[in-house]
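Illustration: Non-homologous end joining protein Ku.
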Amino acid sequence: MLLVRSIWNGAISFGLVSIPIKLVNATENHSISFRQIHTEDGGRIRYRKFCELEDREVTGQEIGKGYEDSDGTIIPITDEDLAGLPIPTAKTIEIVAFVPEDRIDPLQMDAAYYLAAGGAPAAKPYTLLREALKRSKKVAITKYALRGRERLGMLRVVGDAIAMHGLLWPDEVRAPEGVAPDADVTVRDKELDLADALMDTLGEVDLEDLHDEYREAVEEVVAAKAAGEAPREAPAPEAGGGKVLDLMAALENSVRAARESRGEEPAEDAEVKHLQRSKTSRSSPKDTGGKKSTSTAKKKTASSPRKSTSKTSQAEKKSTTTKKTAAKKTPAKKTTSRKRSA
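Result:
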């Protein structure tokens, strides 16, 4: 923390208590940055700043701020003009209220900062404010000025430090009008049960285990091209990835895939049991005991003549053949007699 350069020095106004603090960034950006180049020869593309009146390039020390009026007139504004604004938040983080943390809409959250005590005299009041926030289980709503504008902030305790989240003004958050589906959709209880099962299966995650896979892939591409090698090809999309499933099937497959990825046993949830039972009851007539006994009887019947045939004599075969022939002729005679009587 001592190596982080402060971006703003001032004080927290806690009633009549003033706490000298230094504002430092609580986050850092690990994104890979690219330079613009000329695609034909790889030359760098640079933007140079020219003065319109003198038609020459100017340095950063020569550049200041100016406000353009409605008629196009530029009104110069200096840092001294902004530093002398007649508002208390120019160099002070003013605490205006204490509220429960759930009163803050996450949509209002902006940049995050740590507040470092500004020297030894600030240690006691800094600790007092930190412990008061802990015991009250509330957050402090503040107003402060930074980079040319007044902002809202929220103070909360993080470990042994006080952190400040920049907040957007309420009128800077858009209403979600026209975002939700216009169609009248009804969600069934079974669908909600499967969604709950999927949520339970996915469970919780330690955010420390998550990492930026996109950045790692870009780093691999850069390293490969720097070594004169071909970048690794992207994996082929899964077969049937574009196939449209009904919602219930998609939820069931999602629950199954989530459990398999975690190496868990099949679901034992009540709603999944219910679905499995209903599927079993539909398929049960195919596996009835009657069919099994019938097939067994057929097998026995088919096998018994072979055994008896091997043991019988030629005379028995002839008598059997004679009986069958007689049995075939008898129905024919009956049929003939019926036709005559008609």
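Reading the tokens back as a structure: The domain at 8-28+68-172 is CATH 2.40.290.10 (Ku70; Chain: A; Domain 2).
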